[in-house]
Specification:
heterodimer; A: alpha/beta; Helix Hairpins; Pyruvate Kinase, Chain: A, domain 1; 5-stranded mixed beta sheet; 6 helices; B: alpha+beta; ATP Synthase, domain 1; 2 domains; about 40% strand; elongated
């Protein structure tokens, strides 16, 4: 019976799509778990470093590192952390929407801006809307390494030291839980003053070679590690968002299949009824 | 026997955490040995081996490609780099990131068309779907 061939083909194709989305959902779930672990693993380094920096800043009050001193803002730099791949719900577009609002605010305040992108989606975004992009890193994979980010961070830090930009921000997603990701914009440089009042500095380190050099080194590493943390967190967000998006895609495909099946059955019934009517009609005519 | 707490961490993970009788680290000005009660010290490390002598006398060695060493009388923290860092290598990374941004900019016209076309296709597909749905509703 040739009835509803198109419908059957359509059902098969939706079923195939559903298989794919279901597989992607499962892959994203397992990757998310790994990414979360990686997120946790980056914390001790930054924490230890924060303690050391707070102490050094406290005990070396005569030397103020430029990264710790704020100045009037005429131009800001933003490191935009995005994903490399799509199919992860509104993750990137939410981030960009928030960023555009901030850009408008800056425009209102006559503040200029430039960007450094991490991930392909951010690069494509700025390609579309324009804007000065000074550096770009992409294809980080699921397991990013800090050395992949050095270039992008250093461009910004160099620009800050040259005083061509006065503040550095990082825009990325916050992993609240696997259902919720929050786009955030965090100020990176100058570093916010830490409340180091809790540890009275009666002692100081022996510095080798010199306090200034050690501080330089330390702060650069610290900022790199902060950006790295944001990137790792964003990957966890990406996987979580993809998991949710693929789950709803699978559900929708299920609904679509049900609907199509109903239409197919109706068409089949109609064809049978018609055939019967024809036979009966034919018989009574004889 | 007194001991000193040692943490070895890199930006990507925690490598070692535990008590030690003695720690040796490759500081830039020469290798240092740190026993419990050492004066507070902060120094950079070059590439080399961090050796941790456990209280049991056993030794564990970790390769670091550089980083920072923080010493307090009771705690030693090794903030290790995961990669070999040198000024010119960092510069190369900067150039690479800049190059990539410029390449994207140059390609703008070509790739923009593709992006635009993709957007248009997506829009048309959505319209088509709506039309189909309307037609189905009208028919069924």
């Amino acid at each position: 019976m040739a009835v509803g061939k198109e419908i059957r083909v359509k059902i098969a194709s939706v079923q195939n799509t559903q298989k794919i989305t279901r597989a992607m959902e499962m892959v994203a779930t397992s990757k998310m778990r790994k990414a979360q672990e990686r997120m946790r693993a980056t914390r001790p380094y930054a924490e230890k470093m924060r303690n050391v920096i707070a102490h050094v800043a406290e005990s070396n009050s005569e030397y103020r590192h430029p990264f710790l001193v704020s100045r009037p803002v005429r131009r800001v730099g933003v490191i935009v952390v995005s994903t490399d791949r799509g199919l992860c719900g509104g993750l990137n577009s939410n981030l960009f929407r928030q960023l555009i609002q901030q850009i408008k605010r800056w425009q209102g305040e006559q503040v200029e801006f430039e960007f450094c992108t991490v991930g392909r989606k951010a690069a494509q975004f700025f390609q579309r809307i324009g804007g000065k992009v000074t550096g770009q890193v992409s294809k980080l994979g699921d397991q990013p390494h800090i050395e992949q980010l050095i270039g992008a961070v250093k461009i910004m830090l160099d620009a800050y030291i040259d005083k061509s930009i006065d503040e550095i921000y990082v825009a990325s997603n916050d992993f609240v839980n696997s259902m919720t990701q929050k786009p955030t914009l965090e100020q990176l440089v100058p570093l916010k003053a830490q409340d180091s009042s809790s540890l009275p500095a009666h002692w100081d380190y022996i510095y080798e070679p010199e306090a200034k050099e050690v501080m330089d080194h330390l702060l650069t590493r610290y900022i790199e590690s902060l950006v790295y943390q944001r990137v790792v967190e964003n990957i966890a967000c990406e996987q979580a968002a993809r998991m949710v998006a693929m789950k709803s895609a699978s559900d929708n495909a299920g609904k679509l299949i049900k609907e199509l099946q109903l239409i197919y059955n109706k068409a089949r019934q109609a064809a049978i009824t018609q055939e019967l009517a024809e036979i009966v009609g034919g018989a009574s005519a004889v | 026997m007194s001991s000193i707490h040692v943490d070895i961490v890199s930006a990507e993970r925690e490598i070692f955490s535990g008590d030690a009788a003695m720690v040796f680290a490759p500081a830039v000005l020469g290798e240092v040995g740190i026993a419990p009660g050492h004066a507070a010290m902060l120094t950079r490390m070059g590439p080399g081996e961090v050796r941790v002598q456990l209280p049991s006398g056993e030794q564990q060695a970790f390769y670091v490609s550089g980083g920072m060493l923080e010493v307090q009388p009771k705690v030693v923290t090794v903030l290790s780099d995961t990669a070999i860092r040198a000024h010119d290598l960092d510069e190369a990374a900067v150039l690479k990131a800049k190059q990539e941004a410029e390449d994207t900019l140059k390609d703008r016209s070509g790739k923009l068309d593709i992006a635009k076309a993709q957007a248009e296709i997506a829009e048309l597909a959505a319209q088509l779907q709506t039309i189909q749905r309307l037609r189905r509703r009208a028919g069924g």
